[in-house]
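Posted in: Structural Biology > Protein-Ligand Complexes

Title: Requesting predicted complex, iron/sulfur cluster in pocket

I'd be grateful if someone could produce the 3D structure tokens for the following input. Sequence and ligand are given below.
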Amino acid sequence: MSATLPPKKPAPKAPVEVVKELSMVKQKEMIAGNYEKLATAREQGRKVASTFVPGNLNELLMCFDLVNNLPEINAIQNGMRKKSGQYIMEAEKRGHSEDVCTYVKADLGMMAKGNVGPDGRPIPDPDILLLSYTGCFTFMKWFELLREQYGCETAMLHVPYQGDGRIDANMRDYVVKQLKEEVIPKLERVSGVKFDIDRLREYLRESAKAEDDLVWVLESAKHKPSPIDAYFGGCYYIGPIFTAFRGTPDATEYYRLLRGEIEERIRLGQGPVTPEGEMKTEKYRLVVEGPPNWTSFRDFWKMFYDEGAVVVASTYTKVGGTYDLGFRHDPDRPLESLAEYCLGCYTNRNLPSRIDMIEKYVNEYEADGLLINSIKSCNSFSAGQLLVLREIEKRTGRPGAFIETDLVDPRYFSPANVKNRMESYFQMIEQKRQGARSAAAA
Ligand code: SF4
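-- Reply #1 --
Done. Output follows.
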């Protein structure tokens, strides 16, 4: 009698290999390069500036040879590497409330635990804090805490809010005056480098080239099927231009490569590249408002992938510049264009202008509707989102939906809830489609 063989276990599924396009490899190298510059800044005798993404003045910082450290990016990188939870708990232990923006707590917790960066290497204390204040009050409070901690030089650029939904000449002149009288002299003093406006023009020329290609990439989502995902993929696409690379030849090269890859996908009629592989069938086209969740970024994206949902436009990809509305850095008007850039960031726009933008996206990108990812700890985005939803539904006749997550706090990502809501939303879209078909047949 032969021995009974144990039932055969199903072969484990081979992990899906993420397609690494050249642009992805390039971006990874660039980010690693900036962390390397930060880790070695002291040995290299370089000074460090800390600054925020919206309204960042990267080209100006480069004129003073400053290494750019972006606390929000550290929080995001820590979130994606599942390190932010412990830092947030540390900050809460030290008295920061549960409602505070979790980028802030992830940053403060990281500092409290020795300021070791996401790549495991130390982040040096900044020599200057440059706060370009674009609409979110949290930025100011955050930098007050950092100033207390580091006791270093602080430069604050006050950017007037677009309360009336437009940029007036006096608003621009006010920002330019501060650049000339406050920001540039401080950067000169801290860095020991004299300001050279021609150097700034050179960087701005480079920025504008990259911005042209970024806009082309974002607008490629008007194709059907869309060759990109403008939210999850979009987060990668905005990386270089929103951070320490705008104005560098590296960023220009990154966008040139990316554009080439997307041109090829359009030629082949392909959908977006996702971590699960290529999106083969585009069933739903969505516009998304609000930042993504970073701690479960891949699982979150997969929920869209599994349903055949592609994001064709998002507001998050405009926080560091609304280039798709026509703005370009201009080497012929260097300081004026830096001012207009800060004034035009998404976080600096009032609610009616944000609604107009979203309506335009839903119509121009032929989306099935608007999905809002409301971020528990981000007041700047969350304020007024229900009103935005209702107004967009009214204006476009397309359904909207609301989900809630957080930025980098893993406690506030509930996969079952998010999935449920999204499934109901897709059913709603199906019903709308069915209704439209019946009406057409009648
Ligand atoms: S915009 Fe939101 S995420 Fe950014 S600093 Fe302000 S509250 Fe935090």
